[in-house]
Design goal:
heterodimer, A: 3 helical TM bundles of succinate and fumarate reductases, B: 130 residues, 3 helical TM bundles of succinate and fumarate reductases, two-stranded antiparallel sheet, 4 helices, 2 strands
Chain lengths: 118, 130
C-alpha cells in the first residue's frame, strides 16, 4: 500500500498554524499598518539598512524563511481542503498547484536570502 | 448511459444557512489573506535583494490606501484565525492531567491566547528598538 503523504502536509499546516497564530496579527499590524502610516514606531524602524542587516543575520534569515514559507504551507493546505466545501471537486491537479506554489515560494525565499549575503 | 435523473440535493451556499458554518468559512477564508500577506513579504525580500531603491519602492507601495485597507482586513482575518486556532487546540491534544485532575480546555486555550499576546509584545519591542 502506498504511504499517505498527508502527515507531511499536515505537519507543515500545523507548524504554520501555530506560527501565524503567534505572530501573524502583530506582523501584519507592524509591516502593513504601523510602518506605512508612521504611527507608534520610529520612522526608520523598517528603513533599508536596518532591514538589510536583519536579512543578513542568521537569525533574520531563519525568521523570514520560517514566516514566509510556513504561512504559505498553512494557507495552501487550508485553501486546498476548502475547495471541496465550495463544491469544487479538487483532484491531484489542484493539490499540485497548491502545494507546488508553497514549495516554489519556499525555494525562492531561501535563494533570495542566500544572494542577499551575510 | 442511463436516462435516470436522480435527485441530487443542491449544496450551493450551504454555509450561508447556519452561523456555525459561516464562522467556519470565515476561518477558512483567513488563509487567503495569510497567503497574500506572505507573498507581499516575499516580494519585500525580493526587492531587498535588488538594493535600496527597489526596497524603498516596495515600502512606498505599502503606503497606498488600498494596501492599508487590505492589511486592515488581513489583520482581522488572521486575528480570528489565531483566536480559533487556540480555541480548538485542546481538542487536538490527548487529555492532559495535573495533580490527578484533567486540565480544562479553556485553560489550555487561554495559555495560547496569552502566548500570542506575549509574542506580539516581544516582536513589537524588538522592531521598535529597545
Amino acid at each position: 500500500m502506498k504511504r499517505a503523504n498527508e502527515p507531511i502536509f499536515w505537519s507543515l499546516f500545523g507548524a504554520g498554524g501555530v506560527l501565524s497564530a503567534l505572530l501573524g496579527p502583530i506582523l501584519i499590524l507592524i509591516t502593513g499598518i504601523i510602518a506605512p502610516t508612521g504611527t507608534g514606531m520610529p520612522p526608520d524602524a523598517m528603513a533599508y539598512p536596518r532591514v538589510l542587516a536583519f536579512a543578513q543575520s542568521w537569525c533574520g534569515k531563519a525568521a523570514l524563511l520560517a514566516v514566509i514559507s510556513l504561512f504559505l504551507w498553512h494557507a495552501v493546505h487550508r485553501i486546498y481542503h476548502s475547495l471541496h466545501d465550495l463544491g469544487i471537486h479538487a483532484g491531484a491537479g489542484a493539490a499540485a498547484v497548491c502545494y507546488g506554489f508553497a514549495l516554489v515560494a519556499t525555494l525562492a525565499t531561501a535563494y533570495l536570502l542566500l544572494i542577499i549575503g551575510f | 448511459m442511463s436516462a435516470r435523473k436522480p435527485y441530487v440535493r443542491p449544496m450551493d451556499g450551504w454555509w450561508r444557512r447556519n452561523p456555525f458554518f459561516m464562522r467556519y468559512m470565515v476561518r477558512e477564508a483567513s488563509a487567503v489573506f495569510l497567503a497574500i500577506y506572505a507573498v507581499i513579504l516575499l516580494a519585500g525580500v525580493f526587492r531587498l535583494s535588488q538594493g535600496a531603491a527597489a526596497y524603498e519602492a516596495w515600502l512606498a507601495a505599502l503606503t497606498n490606501p488600498l494596501a492599508i485597507v487590505f492589511h486592515g482586513i488581513a489583520l482581522l482575518a488572521v486575528a480570528y484565525h489565531a483566536y480559533t486556532w487556540w480555541k480548538v487546540m485542546p481538542k487536538t491534544l490527548p487529555m492532559l492531567h495535573l495533580a490527578g485532575r484533567r486540565i480544562p480546555e479553556i485553560a489550555l486555550s487561554a495559555g495560547g491566547w496569552a502566548a500570542t499576546l506575549a509574542a506580539s509584545l516581544v516582536v513589537y519591542v524588538l522592531v521598535r528598538g529597545v
